[in-house]
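[09:14] KT: can someone run the structure on this one? pasting the chain below
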Amino acid sequence: MTLSNGSQRTEPATTANERDMLDGWLDYHRSTLAWKCEALSEEQLRTTPLLPSSMSLLGLVRHMAEVERYWFREIMLGEDLPELYSTEENRDGDFNFTEKDTWAEAEQVWQTEVELSRQAAAGRSLDFASSAASHHRGEVFSLRWVYTHMIEEYARHNGHADLLREHIDGATGE
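[09:31] RB: done, structure tokens below
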């Protein structure tokens, strides 16, 4: 399936090696989130139809930009980066946006973070674990763990995106 931004949503190979399988599933889930946001208006992308939740498709994309940045760049590469949207005062800043925040900006930031994540993982063994960074609990994670976690993170939030999209315009699909 070709998305409006020109990217492909391709089923992962069923017999690939481990690295290609992980890359395939992560890209599949990234594309699924993009697909769930496709052809909606700015207003629809910002809507929060599942009250009392403040979850929206715009918020999910902003959240996943932060998650990509955190796991691949901060944890795997040890980069000291500010959060994109959240602050100490507003821990849910990815979901709490203002009128000046736009879909175009959020999508561009997300796609940039996805590309930077791909670059961070490129050429590294799945056993790679940065000694430069650790999780807030002091744990160190392998790249294999990060891939698996990111697939789980996208899969969970794509379920949310399914519900949001169905409530917004009735569209359903895997």
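[09:33] KT: thanks! The two ends are 12 Å apart (CA to CA).
[09:34] RB: yep, looked fine to me
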